[in-house]
Amino acid sequence: MPAILPFRNPRQLRGVLLAALLAAAAPLAAAICNVPTTGYPTLAAALADPTCDPIQVAAGTLTESPAITRDVTIAGTGSGSTTIAGWVSVTGAATDAVLGALRIDATSASAPLCYASGLDVRGGAKASGLDLVVVGRPTPTSTCGFFADGFESGDTAAWSARRP
Known about the structure:
This protein is mainly β. About 15% of the residues lie in helices and about 35% in strands. It has one domain.
């Protein structure tokens, strides 16, 4: 007995299969992810979800050292009210991270020397932002620190830097 299909002819089946394949190949839709929440208790948790972009960080202090390896925008509520107590690393030749309205404070973090600067951008990655304050610990060598002696930007002009 032949199989019974809900399609009267093969063209209908091909159309349904083509639509399913196109839907599966479509890029993931971006979504605003709020940190900290039950779904995203940490910045690292939101960064692990490829659909999170932008990531909105609430006022307060997050004690973590997130690694950014993909294009993403991370925004706090202001450099005077949203703090990442740790360091932030941005890596990957095609990575473009936009960081804004945040304070990155590595002064109390037990960071390896190359991360003591607070913000470490490597491998051709790009980091830019507005209202971003980065406070690092002085390191004995400046060969690995991007902003080894600290860097502060006002909220009136954007900054951008690329390290090879």
